[in-house]
Fold:
Amino acid sequence: MAEYDDLDDTGRRDFLLKMTSVVGGAGVVAASVPFVASMNPSAELLAKANTEVDLSGIPEGGMHTVAWQGKPIFILHRTKEEIKAMAVTNGEKDPEPDSERVKKPEWLVVIGVCTHMGCVPNKEGPGWICHCHGSQYDDSGRILRGPAPKNLEVPPYRFIADNKIMIGQA
Amino acid sequence: MASRIIEWIDHRFPLTSFIKHELTDYPTPRNLGYWWNFGFLAGFVLMLQVLTGLFLAMHYKPDAAIAFDSIQHIMRDVNYGWLLRFMHSTGASSFFLVIYIHMARTLYYGSYRSPRELMWWTGQGLLLLLMATAFMGYLLPWGQMSFWGATVITNLFRATPFIGDHVVVWLRGDYAVGDDTLTRFFALHYLFPFLIIGAVVVHLVALHSVKSSNPSGIDLADKDNIPLHPYYTSKDFFGLGVFLILYFIVVFFFPHSVLEPANNVPANPLITPDHIVPEWYFLPFYAILRSVPNMVGGVVAMGLSVMVFAFMPFLDRSRIPGGGRYRPVYRIMFFLFMLDILVLGYVGYVPPTSKTIAIGQVATFFYFGSFVLLPFISRAEDKWLFKRGLPAKIKALIASEEEDKRKRKQR
Structure:
């Protein structure tokens, strides 16, 4: 009757079933990696990740918008008064000194994407106002009021000449 | 000859018995009103969208460089392209209108109550699929409103804990909404209707297991049921005629009423339109998103505002069937809730000012408050109605429902 006892031993069967399920599940997860990864930015997009900008055409007090990785970058040539006004405040909701947000105080370079829902804020008076949900930023791109949680982001960039920056490389 | 062919098929496939079981012998309560037409209408609009969408896809190009122009090509050059497009865009709005009425009927008459919870939950899943499909389809014309709508909504996923920024880039396939986003949205916009059809099959299998609810809110005895065909098929088709008249009035005379003028400007990633509004069917939820000052809180509140309906079978603690029909307090709550949704819709539509934000916050509070208070109100109402003495008719209904539940358990 030993044969019957073997057949009734469901513990072994359950164990094999569980192990097969685990291995099979791991296989499905592994197989999904290429599919999920294929939806991330392609090599072509990554290759275009840097933008070189010549600053000499931007007058004092003026702002230019350039595209970097498909996103707008605000480049503000700040006046002496603006620099002074920004140096004495720390922003409101996301305090950060102005000196940590710029490489040279006369050039403010920020990503022009509202940190709330991703709209592009408009330059209005001192600072920016986002029309989607009413967030307000100062001349250092710091959030003053409105639903946005964070300051406008500073992209990685460096000065490759006195009047030229490369956005995308810190 | 025909009968011999059917006999041949029946030997291999349950054709006749299927038609009998699901149509000519399928019992439906004899007291269904026109509010019970909307499930059928939703199924019809789904087919209409699949059909018009298929033919539009033969002319549309999901490439950021030419997508906008291909819509103009459809509107001007393709034979009847304008008709296909207006039928599809009007169809999307009609779909939501029909579904919202279908849901409102379920809420009013308490059709979500036992044993129809799975109907309600599969319906909830269908609503989410419909919303996702409509949202992705809205990007395809590649106009300003398309672009910024997709930007704002994909940005919501930044609220994902820890990996939010990566999730947004992954969804878009780019650092901003771009060509890759458009192409994948097109692929998914084509796929999702098939998921919807699959979910509809589940919804219908569940329906044919628990049968239709009815205005009295209980399962009727056999003598009060009539076959679906021809009684309700004819009623459904009459309703369809009325629907099609209204639908084609919009398609032919007011097609632009469901389209945003700003979407006639090609997408520009560097300029946001001054006033972004979603389509009308998303406005109440958008208003809730804007009403919460905290970003993550807003996203959570918006998600919850759609999903909270799933809790209805648990929140409604009254023993009295028939929903608003026999329950005066629930009826008042229902209509106040509908009014609240209209207020939220208005708040979502207008540009945010301090006044409309305040109104939106009160309306949001009331929206969630209704669900939070429902268990207590429905219990108190139930006690009050029983204490006052129920009419004999309702007592008989409750007794008959208890009887039915007992029978189900025995089966």
Chain B has 16 helices and two strands.
